[in-house]
Design a protein that fits this description.
This protein starts with a helix and ends with a helix. Strand 9 and strand 10 form a beta hairpin. It is an alpha+beta fold. Strands 1, 2, 3, 4, 5, 6, 7, 8 and 11 form a 9-stranded antiparallel beta sheet that branches. It has a 9-stranded mixed beta sheet with strand order 16-18-15-19-20-14-21-22-23.
């Protein structure tokens, strides 16, 4: 057996060698076969890759099926810091991983969507995994940004659509340009979509996908960059050595060097060549070679997709070019560039095969497959990680501020807005939201013209209004545009200027009871008007207020009795206060006639207190009335028993009433105070009408300084109370500071629309202060004539201040001008106001005292009988 062992060993070695040789031969044959049939291997690899890609797509689509969307809406004062923006970026990077463990990498991303479709200047949305909603719902921006669940966006197909994917070009390890937060980095993008027109189907959307950087991909990228840096450094060293040798050889072969060698006496100096030491490759520093990829912290991969669409050819492509220019703002040594190839005038990109299908899949499913170059640090994205801030100038779109349509009762004209593309349109606010309006500006700046245009548009839409103009200039300016057959029955002119030889004047009896007013409301309105115009109060003029109130109570009772007797033409007027206080016979007859209508306290005052008053106590009450009586126009207007002027009826019947007081003197201020207080009383009296049946009515007050000088508390009360009764006040003034404090505070506090033209900085400052001095007083003061800055309420939010050009009647309502029908309008307006010649009304007013005295004499016995009966009843039930 010992002799057989070597034999067996040799046989085993031979067998092993033959097996190895056979294996090598088999491998060589297999390699040769594969070389001859390489296409089969390629097909097998492609098939495996296709099956793997199909499986990954299915898993990614399943993971992306449950996504959430949040919409971030910033306030006008949103001004975040870099730290707050950076914190949101960290949240977004963390939220991108809130996916199941089996989800492919392409599905693990959070998407920022910047969308402009005409509804808002730039809508800011965040979409991501459903599990990240809780994390992203609370932003580091605080209350200045509202986060709400966003609805799915459904787009109608557009005729023309262009797509683009942006990648980072340039030195890939260099960061993008550090864009400051002031002005807003989003401003170029906002400007690019500012001229978007929704009616043409314009749409622009930017999607930025953020994905946390995979460690293996980052390591591979770093190895690639380090290898490239070392190769580059070796090439530089070799190039330097080559140039060094070439320089040395050139020197040795030169004639000068050879002559130098011949003339030298050093032995052996002419033999051999100069020793050249090649430069050693410089050590590559990782921080220098890797740049922004050197650190792992807050490094993400991004995918930037853009789509623009329109129903008009060329607009989508132009929009994409504008957005491309906007992204150039972020470029430095690294920049955003569109992916694709350019062949002459054509660009082969995401709109063409083979990349179009992949673009649409990523767009529709929210998958993130960024190019290898799209590595950024979170600091580079600060400009895109937030909604627009206070430093962003947003355009005013049709969705923000509706376009005015003539004859539309829901809209109220505000001015002419010039868009970023140079197009102009008439803009408006919604009438139901425009509760109070204040216009400030210097004389001739266009505030009255703007109010006239608004009032005329409102009148043509069927609305009722009263325009109070102490200077009367507005009436001849507006007549040509109101002279329409359908408007004439609704227009009434109350002109107290007394123009002409025998002017026609309407009539009003503030004490009249023929229109169904409540007696105590009439007494209160007139007494308050007196107190407001004459600066009376309970501390400075208690006796005057008491005397006037008691006299008004008696005269109102007289008028009430006359109306119930069917004799409204026998009513007393405000001028009969003098007769009641100074004429004993008239007073006795009046008290006897209305004794049964007065309360016990009032009767007791006339019986016990009045006789003790000295005669000079009545002068303070009678002096203002004497001034009214001295003016023939005001005497004719206020001296008629059954006056025509009824502002409550005008409110309910949508009348267009133009009131032109005679001036701004003491007498005119008292008359204005009476009219203003009557307007307040009439509006408050609408409480007897259900709210849904109250017809909107708009008082326009030109020259608020004049009007508030007569009735400051009344005007202030209008700005505070009349909204409840659908009576919306519009006021114009040159100086806000000259208004009484109560009026100024009330109108600024409650103004739905605040407007100013150019003027001095001191006059404009109170308005710009309400806007946070944006725009500044300096900017507003240098505006052109008829330019306005206006802030408005639209759909519950404030729009502006926006710069508008005031509407000029000759331009805006040129089609409505009817100058040839102005005389007919004048006649109709006076007829509707039942205006009569001044001398006729003056004669009637002079005879009214006798008519009232005759009526009192006839009814004195009936009044005494009523008092006797009431006393018997008191004794019976006492």
């Amino acid at each position: 057996m010992d002799s057989a062992a070597p034999y067996l060993t040799d046989r085993a070695n031979e067998t092993a060698a033959s097996q190895v040789l056979g294996l090598i031969t088999g491998l060589a044959d297999a390699a040769d076969w594969l070389y001859d049939h390489w296409y089969l291997l390629a097909l097998a690899i492609a098939a495996c890759g296709g099956v793997g890609e199909l499986g990954v797509r299915r898993l990614a689509a399943k993971a992306s099926a449950e996504r959430m969307a949040l919409e971030l809406v910033s306030t006008r004062h949103f001004d975040p810091s870099l730290e707050e923006i950076f914190r949101l970026g960290v949240q977004l990077a963390r939220a991108s991983t809130a996916m199941p463990w089996w989800a492919p990498l392409r599905a693990k991303a959070v998407q920022i969507r910047l969308r402009a479709d005409g509804s808002t200047p730039l809508r800011y949305r965040i979409e991501g995994p459903a599990g990240s909603e809780r994390l992203l719902s609370i932003t580091p921006f605080g209350p200045d940004v509202t986060v709400s669940r966003a609805r799915p966006v459904v787009d109608e197909p557009r005729t023309h659509t262009v797509r683009a994917e942006f990648i980072l070009r340039g030195k890939l390890t260099s960061p993008l340009r550090e864009v400051p937060l002031t002005p807003d980095p989003l401003q170029p993008l906002v400007d690019a979509v500012a001229d978007l027109r929704a009616e043409l189907g314009d749409l622009a959307e930017i999607r930025l996908d953020i994905q946390r950087a995979p460690k293996w991909a980052l390591r591979a990228r770093r190895l690639q960059l380090m290898g490239a840096a070392r190769r580059s450094e070796r090439r530089e060293a070799q190039r330097a050595a080559r140039w060094l040798r070439q320089d040395a050889s050139g020197i040795e072969d030169s004639l000068g060097w050879q002559l130098q060698q011949l003339l030298t006496d050093k032995p052996g100096s002419g033999t051999g060549r100069r020793l050249v030491v090649p430069p050693v490759p410089r050590r590559v520093e990782p921080a220098e070679a890797l740049g922004k990829l050197a650190e792992d912290d807050h490094l993400v991969r991004v995918q930037l997709l853009v789509m623009c669409a329109s129903n008009t050819e060329g607009r989508a492509q132009a929009r994409l070019s504008q957005l491309q220019a906007a992204f150039d703002v972020f470029g430095g040594r690294s920049r955003w560039a569109m992916r694709g190839w350019r062949l002459g005038p054509w660009r082969i990109g995401a709109d063409y095969w083979p990349t179009k299908r992949g673009f649409e899949r990523r767009w529709n499913l929210g998958h993130c497959q960024p190019p290898r170059a799209n590595w950024v640090r979170m600091e580079e994205l600060t400009g895109l990680l937030k909604p627009p801030t206070v430093h962003c100038r947003l355009p005013v779109l049709a969705g923000d501020l509706p376009t005015f349509s003539f004859g539309e009762p829901e809209l109220l004209l505000q001015g002419i807005y010039r868009g970023p593309d140079g197009r102009e349109r008439l803009v408006a606010t919604y009438a139901e939201e425009t509760l109070f309006e204040v216009g400030v500006g210097k004389a001739g700046g266009g505030k009255t013209e703007r109010a006239l245009a608004q009032a005329i548009g409102w009148a043509h839409a069927g609305g009722g209004l009263i325009f109070v103009d102490p200077h009367r200039d507005s009436w001849p300016r507006a007549t040509a545009f109101l002279a329409h057959d359908d408007l004439m029955p609704r227009i009434a002119l109350i002109d107290l200027n007394g123009l002409g030889t025998n002017p026609r004047v309407s009539s009003w009896n503030p004490l009249g009871m023929h229109q169904g007013h409540a007696a105590h409301e009439v007494v209160e309105a007139i007494a308050d008007a007196y107190a407001s115009a004459l600066a009376w109060d309970d501390a400075t003029a208690p006796r005057a207020l008491t005397i006037l109130t008691a006299a008004l109570a008696v005269l109102v009772a007289v008028n009430e009795a006359a109306c119930q007797a069917g004799r409204p033409e026998d009513q007393a007027t405000i001028f009969h206060v003098r007769a009641l206080l100074t004429d004993a016979a008239f007073r006795k007859a009046a008290l006897a006639a209305v004794a049964g209508r007065l309360d016990e306290e009032t009767r007791a005052w006339w019986q016990s207190v009045f006789p003790t008053l000295p005669p000079d106590a009545f002068a303070v009450v009678l002096n203002p009335i004497a001034r009214l009586a001295a003016n023939p126009v005001t005497r004719a207007f206020l001296g008629q028993p059954a006056g025509v002027y009824n502002i409550r009826a005008a409110m309910d019947s949508q009348m267009i009433v133009w009131v032109c007081p005679g001036g701004n003197g003491p007498t005119d201020r008292l008359l204005t105070a009476l009219l203003a207080r009557d307007l307040l009383r009439a509006a408050r009296s609408r409480r007897d009408t259900p709210e849904e049946k109250r017809v909107p009515f708009r008082p326009y007050f030109d020259e608020l300084i004049t009007l508030t000088g007569a009735a400051p508390e009344t005007i202030a009360a209008m700005f505070e109370d009349l909204r409840k009764y659908k009576c919306h006040v519009h006021g114009m003034t040159q100086l806000l500071s000259r208004l009484p404090t109560s009026v100024r505070l009330s109108l600024v506090q409650n103004a739905s629309t605040l407007a100013t033209t150019a003027g001095s900085k001191s006059a404009i400052a109170p308005i710009t202060a309400e806007w946070g001095d944006n725009p500044s007083p300096d900017r507003v003061a240098t505006m052109e004539r008829f330019e306005h800055y206006v802030s408005m309420n639209v759909r519950g939010r404030r729009v502006g201040p926006v710069q508008l050009r005031g509407p000029h009647l000759d331009d805006v309502f040129a089609a409505q001008a009817r100058p040839q029908q102005v005389p007919a309008l004048e006649r109709a307006a006076q007829a509707n106001a039942q205006a009569l010649p001044l001398d006729q009304l003056t004669d009637r007013a002079a005879k009214q005292l006798g008519r009232v005295a005759a009526f009192l004499a006839a009814h004195a016995s009936a009044g005494a009988a009523a008092v006797h009966l009431s006393k018997e009843k008191e004794r019976e039930f006492g």
